[in-house]
Specification:
heterodimer, A: alpha/beta, four-stranded mixed sheet, 17% strand, B: mainly alpha, Arc Repressor Mutant, subunit A, 2 domains, 0% strand, Anti_sigma_zinc_sf (chain A), transmembrane helix (chain A), Anti-sigma-W factor RsiW (chain A), transmembrane (chain A)
């Protein structure tokens, strides 16, 4: 028995799929005429198709639709515009949530910490909500006053920051930067700057 | 796409649950048929087809209306059936020794319902025989043969339903046909 070319079976399937080229079909037909084994193979495949296609339609059980409708959950899960938007942009949502939470903590620390506070340093005079650096006194550290006023009459060897208050100086001598913070936004900026500075100073 | 179906889908999405009944009755025949051919059991087929419709209902908002609805439904149903077939498969090892016996492994317990003797096959009615031969096909080929020859879907659509390349669908159809040819032998 001579060996049939392998592609003949391939062509048979192309033929059965209905996407055989004219040339392949011609080749297949010529081969089938001359080869009984392949002709038999082709017949069997055609029979297989006919056999499977003769499967009768199975009727749907009575009351199928009603049963499905009974089983579906009561509330349809239709998504409204907002929900759909949230579902489609998870990163955006995460970023927004993060920002909201972040700013909330910062703003609340601005608004809630209404009580007066001051960096402790020897030589400072505190009267009510006014902090005074007396004449002739030298503070050798940074000075932060929250929710109070600062009057500098002596010397400060460091930065001065006043939050929610007034900085008053006459003949003051401050070696560092002087900052006065009265707006939430500035407070935010100050907190961030401070945070970064702390980060670097601990890294050192 | 089918404007009526799209209209019904929009109604369901807007909260009109009863519009879904039309969708079910339109596709119940096809889905039930596919499930039956895949699973080979009427009760299980009904349950699977119902589950497919319920799943489709729950996830209706994810359906892309630019695509064919039936393709999406078929996909849900075939995935569900393939899952069920896998779960039905025994999860014990065939090589394991049967407890209480000596040298008797699971292979010896298996053969009985896998292959029927010749004379029994001959007594089978045609319809019974068709389902028997389909159920003997490996799942990979079974799905494509059912979609191609019982649902008579184009190969491209089968590729969309099963989410496999067109070339793979063709190969599976070819191998499925060859497998059936060998199974049928002298029919």
């Amino acid at each position: 028995m001579k060996q049939c070319p392998e592609h003949v079976v391939e062509y048979m399937h192309e033929y059965l799929d209905g996407d055989i080229s004219q040339q392949h079909e011609k080749e297949l037909r010529t081969h089938l005429k001359s080869c009984d084994t392949c002709k038999e193979h082709m017949n069997e495949l055609t029979n297989v198709v006919a056999f499977i296609k003769s499967a009768a339609a199975i009727s749907v059980p009575a009351g199928f639709t009603t049963n499905v409708m009974h089983r579906i959950p009561m509330k349809p899960r239709a998504l409204k515009g907002v929900q759909r938007f949230l579902r489609r942009h998870p990163m955006l949502v995460a970023a927004v949530v993060f920002l909201i939470l972040m700013s909330a903590t910062l703003f609340s620390s601005f608004n809630n910490s209404q009580q007066f506070s001051v960096t402790k340093a020897p030589g400072l005079i505190v009267e009510g909500e006014t902090v005074t650096v007396p004449v002739g006194e030298t503070i050798k550290s940074d000075l932060v006053v929250e929710n109070g006023n600062l009057v500098v009459e002596g010397n400060v060897e460091g930065d001065v920051t006043v939050v929610n208050g007034k900085y008053m100086a006459s003949t003051a001598n401050v070696t560092g930067n002087v900052e006065e913070i009265n707006e939430s936004f500035e407070w935010l900026w100050y907190s961030i700057k401070n945070g970064v500075k702390k980060l670097f100073s601990t890294a050192d | 796409m089918d404007p009526l179906i799209n209209k019904r889908i929009k109604q369901v999405l807007k909260g009109d649950q009863s519009a879904y009944a039309d969708i079910v009755s339109l596709y119940q025949q096809s889905l039930h048929q596919v499930c039956y051919r895949m699973l080979g059991n009427k009760e299980e087929a009904e349950d699977a087809a119902q589950e497919a419709f319920i799943k489709a209902y729950i996830h209706l908002h994810t359906y892309d209306q630019k695509r064919k609805f039936s393709t999406w439904l078929y996909r849900i149903a075939t995935n569900l059936c393939i899952d069920r077939i896998r779960k039905k498969k025994p999860d014990y090892y065939l090589d394991a020794e049967v407890p209480g016996t000596e040298g008797l492994d699971m292979y010896s317990q298996l053969a009985v319902d896998e292959l029927l003797p010749e004379e029994e096959l001959e007594r089978m009615e045609l319809q019974e025989r068709i389902q028997y031969e389909i159920s003997r096909l490996p799942d990979k080929y079974r799905a494509v043969i059912i979609l191609k020859y019982i649902e008579e879907l184009p190969l491209q659509e089968i590729s969309d339903i099963l989410d496999i390349p067109l070339g793979t669908v063709k190969t599976r159809v070819h191998r499925g046909r060859e497998a059936l040819r060998k199974q049928l032998g002298d029919l």
